[in-house]
Please model this.
Amino acid sequence: MNEAQFGNKVRHLLNQGLRANLKNPSRVAERLRAAREQALARQRPEAAPVHAWADNVLGTFGGWSGLTVRVMLPLVILAAGVSGVYSWQQYQRAAEVEEIDAQLLTDDLPIDAYLDRGFQNWLKKTSAEQ
Amino acid sequence: MPRRGKPLASRAELSTFLEGVERRAFKQAVFAVRDEEAALDIVQDAMLRLAESYGHRPVAELPLLFHRIVQNAIRDWFRRQKVRSLWTTLFSSLGGKSEDDEQDPLETLEAVGGSNPEELPQAGLERAQVLEIIEQEIAKLPARQREAFIMRYWEELDVAETAKAMGCSEGSVKTHCSRATHALATALKARGITL
Model:
């Protein structure tokens, strides 16, 4: 007899013995029925089709917890980094513009100087060089 | 690869699955923990975990998921027992408890018809006594061999599914099954039973 044949014979006997050799078979049956009903009452509610598809995808990565650890966390960190760099660049540009405006506003040049075309050209040239 | 298009388990399908598997799961837990009450708690816990966390997985995935949950629940039970026995040992050493008070776990298995399972049986044993002996020998197997043998031949999972449920390689599953079969056949033969 090979392994599969032996296993099949043991299965046949084990199935016959599902009710045998128990201290209280009816009590066991009742407890199992109650446990089944309790589990069904707590069955996870069915998600919307889009969410169900997403849930299936997430399930391939080991569920929400697996996806969070292995995929989402690096993505979140990357997104936060990119966002932070962009915000810092925007802040730097704003600070530079403020600096130039402040320098212009506090400069000792008389206001009439801004009517001088030569001075306008000089300003443009100076800004381009900076 | 995403499992698109696979129908998710309805309440009726989950109910049918649990009703079909609950008795075998209970027996398997009894083999492992040798206590009917503990086995009932384990199966109840496993059912709840399956329904709450995986209740809407595709129906085809339920057997593998459930068996993995049952095995984890059995391991959790043993871990709690270790912690409890540690505290019991600590307190009993203070109270001077005798080692004779320890109970043979096989005593929790009720013998059929008052028969003594330790006697060598005759060739014409009744089926119930044969079954009792088979269950005893299955319970004596090392845990991993028992898990592999039961999943392959009682739950009829294939090698790949069994490997996933047990968290081991397919080669390990085959090795465990082979050793379990050899051990069971040898033990049954020693007790005069030939299948």
The CA atoms of residues 14 and 21 of chain A lie 11 Å apart. Residues 48-111 of chain A form one domain. Chain A has a mean pLDDT of 75. The two ends of chain A are 92 Å apart (CA to CA).
